[in-house]
Design a protein that fits this description.
The protein has helices spanning 22-35, 62-70, 85-89, 99-108, 139-163; strands spanning 10-16, 44-50, 93-96, 115-118. A 4-stranded parallel β-sheet has the order 2-1-3-4, with helices on both faces. With 169 residues, the protein is α/β, with parallel strands linked by helices. α1 runs parallel beside α2, α1 (22-35) packs across α5 (139-163) and α2 (62-70) packs across α5. It contains 5 helices and 4 strands.
Length: 169
């Protein structure tokens, strides 16, 4: 008999400030990277939200969309959402872009089973580095941000495989 917990979806959220730049790029990238992994595909639900409610309901920034398109990611992101307590508590894993997001999420989150990690710690563990906001930059700033997100996503898929028992007998 299979383990019923293996059949439950694993909910992953990516958080930035306004949910129109970094987190929607990460949402699309991570969703794509997860979908190409036979073990993880159809097990992980990826969403994104912002710690501020300034842009709720808006599409991602056109420069974020252009960077994704240039990288070959044509999937749409979700419209901007607000990471309130209820939203955060529904997730197994929350990935944040900055230490400020980490603080904001930690204050709102009341589910003790939700794990929160800083995105760049996936690449450079323990350094607690922020992923700079490309919002005030040009398309190149978004492309550079996406490059870091893609690298983090590769590490994330390895971590999710380990955490969900991909190599277990």
């Amino acid at each position: 008999m299979s383990d019923i917990s293996a059949l439950r979806p694993f909910f992953l959220s990516v958080i930035c400030t306004g949910n129109i730049c970094r987190s929607p790029m990460a949402e699309v990238t991570f969703r794509n990277q997860i979908a190409t992994d036979e073990f993880l595909a159809n097990r992980i639900v990826v969403t994104s939200a912002g710690t501020a409610n300034w842009h709720v309901g808006r599409e991602m920034d056109p420069r974020a969309r252009a960077a994704l398109d240039q990288a070959g990611y044509s999937q749409p992101g979700t419209r901007a959402a607000f990471a309130d307590e209820g939203y955060l508590n529904r997730h197994n894993l929350v990935i944040v872009m900055t230490r400020e997001h980490l603080r904001d999420v930690s204050i709102r989150l009341t589910n003790p089973h939700t794990r929160v990690i800083l995105l760049r710690n996936l690449i450079e563990p323990g350094l607690d580095l922020d992923l700079a906001d490309p919002y005030y930059g040009d398309l190149q700033a978004f492309i550079e941000c996406l490059s870091i997100i893609k690298e983090a996503g590769q590490r994330l898929t390895l971590e999710l495989r380990r955490q969900l028992g991909a190599d277990a007998p």
